[in-house]
Design brief:
Elements lengths: L5 H7 L4 H10 L3 H18 L11 E4 L3 E2 L10 H14 L5 E6 L2 E6 L1 H9 L1 H6 L3 E6 L7 H14 L5 H13 L4 H8 L3 H10 L34 H7 L20 H4 L13 H13 L1 H14 L1 H8 L6 H14 L14 H21 L7 H5 L9
Parallel strand pairs: 2-4, 3-5
Antiparallel strand pairs: 1-5, 3-4
Helix pairs in contact: 8-10, 9-10, 14-16, 14-17, 16-17
Length: 391
Amino acid sequence: MKQATLFDAIKDANKTAAESVAAYLAKLSGDALIAAINDIKIQLHEISPFKNEPVDCVVWVKNTDVQANDYNPNRVAPPEMKLLEISIANDGYTQPVVTFPENGKYTVVDGFHRTRVSKECPEITKRVMGYTPITIIRDSQADRTDRIASTIRHNRARGKHVVDAMSEIVLELKNRNWKNERIARELGMDEEEILRLCQITGLEDLFKDDDFSRSWSIDDSSEDGFERFTDEVTEQEKEENNFRTTNTSDEKRVFHTYQKWECYKAGFFSTTPPDGMTGAQAEQAYADFLADDAAFREALEHVTKEWKHSCEHNLTNKAMNRIAWLGQAALAYARGISSKYCGGFYLLTEEQQAIANNTAHEYLNKWLAANGREPVSFEEAYSVGRQVEIY
């Protein structure tokens, strides 16, 4: 006997469309039921006034069909990963995984760790029947570089990224002919952040002049078929695209080239742990350092008094998280551990995190006062929407 379709159920039943759909679905179970519900959601999404909003259509797919991307710079410390598991166990999935269809699978744009929970936690895997809730990013973000930018925006909005992985992403975007202006705008950075990340990847030749050279030098090469790249942006382009540029509007902002940054010389941007340490040990050392308020204060005293150029360049920048920078600078000064291992912040308890943040805020205002500047609130120093803690 031919199985009745949803169309037949609505056509033959003397019920409302919603009642007919519910009656039809009640006859299904397992994977067939989930597939039918997904199909209905997708069809409704096509006629929804919110069809351009990915969250309008959340479907459930087999977790084996959800795969990681190969560029995500986000890392979650073990305590946070456990907290995420507890949250999903108790509260359920409150956010879908953002994905993009690729080669018959769904590649994660944001939410890889939520995917891990659906795969690795037996109780949750059983509860959600081996499925993961996903939504699909806009078609306009189909290009790999656009998806990379989207992942970074999601991560930075939560204040989480790893410096060396970010530098590799910036390098890839530059190799794909993205201008510094566009990278800054799309990733929510300032241009000097882009410059620092380029330095980490070994692109110092780009910045050999004090004003940061904006072009590659090409010797003895043919220019036939060569498109010259430039980061120059016309006033018309800025107006049309609302480009976000380096924070130069503040008359009191102080700039120094990276050669003068004491933090640079101290290994602030190093991509490897100190000799004899693993990455995990470097993160634990960072946590231990921040948990020792006396040691942290002593290092901040030295940084704010001895690192003239680094402090001027970073602590006069209202667009960055100065609280985070001070924590990372103190670590580099006192322990020779780079900002790459700032994930150790998340190994602290919430109380320890609050103490460390407040100490950094205190020393920021001490430095501002000593340099004839007005003190700032924690929220101003914290700079919401950027790196949100001393991590």
